[in-house]
Amino acid sequence: MAITLLDMLKNAGLITREQFDEALRNRVLYGGKIGTSLIELGFVREDVLARFLSSKLALPYVHPDRLLAIPPETISLIPRELALKYGAIPIHREQKRLYLVMADPADLKAIDDISFITGFIIKPLIAPEVRLIQALGKYYNFEIDRRYEQIIERIDRERHLQEAAAAQAPASPTPEAEEAIPEAEIVDFIPEALDEELEEAEVVEAEWVARIGHFTIDTVSRTLALAEDREEIAGIIIDYLGQEFDRAAFFVIRGDAAFGWKGMRGGLELRDFDKVAIPLGSSSVLKTVADGKSYYLGALPQTPQNAMLVDSLGGEAPSAALLMPLVITGRVVNILYVDGGKRDLGERFAELHRLLTKAAL
């Protein structure tokens, strides 16, 4: 089972088992992210939660002061509809790069959609949900629920009291916070000189790029554990594979045919892929995988059905492709197709096998 934020906080000694259980009940009753429940119940301070998330995700977090002081020209880079749809707020632009505070920095579809619509290379940042909602209300006229208003009012009062106390006698972090949050992995985007901010952003980006492969597959695994239906599961996997391979697709096996479900080429969704239907009565790699309940790795033989497969993926037969079955209760229900990518397909087999196993679960 994937480890959750609550598990990580409990393992780090920042919350107790009782607080763990109460935070879960609170979320079930009132909704929102689990971090909001933890802050609302007073179990974890806003700054401690933000630093913890920053450390675990290897992404910089945005300080509330910085989040609430974004210039209008920066805000205008993201249309209101897009900002509200994905919970994303632009905080800084540097040439073709746009730094976004996001409700879910691991939402690859959101990143791809925003990048396609705006033309920017998106660099995600994080902030507690409650602060992101506050910023959406300020910049995009988002109607803030009274619950969030009360949380914001309380944590702002507490923060002002802490700052006043710190001005008189600066306090050091608690021992448990120091132990739980490696200082080297934390970067705060605070309202300082622009050149210092960009220098910090470059440091974080270098570390993030070095770790993004692990972070992304790890996040996909955790997200799959929370998925609620088959559409969400397929979307999570295809969104991830769409950035890893030249082409990726899911087929549904029903009767004597393979039907297109979700597909991507060059990072973009394949149009009308759900209208694809490839018969399994004659020789094809799809039939080989479906009948044998095993994977296929290699070039695609020249058969009419394989030609239909290539056409459904936008044409141009690949030098090699990898197809893998998703088996549930002994029956092949889906077939995953990928080709291209920066690494040899055979090297990706174990990773894809784990993804399909989790999807079946």
Secondary-structure map:
Elements: H1 5-11, H2 17-30, H3 34-40, H4 46-57, E1 61-62, H5 64-67, H6 72-75, H7 80-86, E2 88-94, E3 97-102, H8 108-118, E4 121-125, H9 129-140, H10 146-168, H11 175-180, E5 188-189, H12 194-226, H13 230-244, E6 247-254, E7 257-265, E8 268-269, E9 277-279, H14 285-292, E10 296-298, H15 304-312, E11 321-328, E12 331-339, H16 349-360
Parallel strand pairs: 1-5, 3-4
Antiparallel strand pairs: 2-3, 6-7, 6-12, 7-8, 7-9, 10-11, 11-12
Written description of the protein model:
- This protein has about 350 residues and is of the alpha+beta class.
- Helices cover about 50% and strands about 20% of the residues.
- It contains 16 helices and 12 strands.
- Strands 6, 7, 8, 9, 10, 11 and 12 form a 7-stranded antiparallel beta sheet that branches. The chain has a 3-stranded mixed beta sheet with strand order 2-3-4.
- Helix 8 (about 110-120) links the parallel strand 3 (about 95-100) and strand 4 (about 120-125).
- Helix 2 packs across helix 3, helix 9 (about 130-140) crosses helix 10 and helix 12 packs across helix 13 (about 230-245).
- The longest helix is centred in the middle third of the chain and has 33 residues, at about 195-225.
- The radius of gyration is 23 Å and the shape is elongated.
Quick summary of this structure?
The protein has 361 residues and is an alpha+beta fold.
